[in-house]
Amino acid sequence: MTTTLTQSGTAAGTTPAAEPATRRKVAIICSKGSLDMAYPGLILANAARMMDIDAMIFFTFWGLDIVREKTADKLQPGIVGNPATHMPAMFAGLPGMGQMAAHMMKKKIEEIEIPSVRELLETLEAAGAKLYACHMAMEMMGFTKEDLVPQVHDVITAMDFFEESEGAQIVFV
Questions:
Q1: Which residue has the higher pLDDT, 28 or 6?
Q2: Fewer CB within 10 Å of terminal CB in the chain, N or C?
Q3: What is the CATH number of the domain that holds 148?
Q4: 8 lies in a domain?
Q5: Other residues' Cβ atoms within 10 Å of the Cβ of residue 70
């Protein structure tokens, strides 16, 4: 029995192999620096890398607190004005309530074995995710690259972000 090949090199009567798909990419923008807003972006980027999806995170405005050396380990949940806390705003704003909420949240995070923010940043870097800080926000707040955790790959502009994230799904947290 002879097999006839088509011009593309496949056997007649069969379909050619699918073209290799372009790599999937996700670009996550973290604009808030509270503990409860740090985890969604970091967890999404980690899940992407576990699925072999290219991941980058762009930290801007208050989101820079997630990657600032002075604040990365001291993030507190945003409880004032947050209806999901089921706490009246007048209580949420009382002195010490933020620290108490942070303690309770960090205890629960530890109980269910979720890594800390710093551990997630280290994991993301080791997994090949790119972490970027926003140049304009850095200038506005008077920060330098030396103020950031070492896992931050670079400080880039918004235009650089669009170049780096071309073809990516963009998620705003």
A1: 28
A2: N
A3: 3.40.1260.10
A4: no
A5: 11
Phi, psi (5° rounding) for residue 43? -65, -40
Cβ neighbours, 10 Å, residue 116: 15
Q: Beta-carbon neighbour count of residue 68 at 10 Å?
A: 22
* Tokens 């330098």, located at residue: 144
* Domain range enclosing 128: 25-79+116-172
Within its chain, how far is the Cα of 99 from the centroid?
A: 24
Pairing of strands 54-59, 25-30: parallel
Q: 72-102: per-residue pLDDT in tens? A: 999 988 766 566 666 666 565 667 766 777 7
Contact predicate 135/155, CB 8 Å: yes
Looking at the structure of the chain, the number of domains it has is 1
* Residue 56, H or E segment: strand 54-59
35-50 and 97-111 helices, crossing angle to 10°? 20
The answer to whether residue 15 is domain-embedded is no
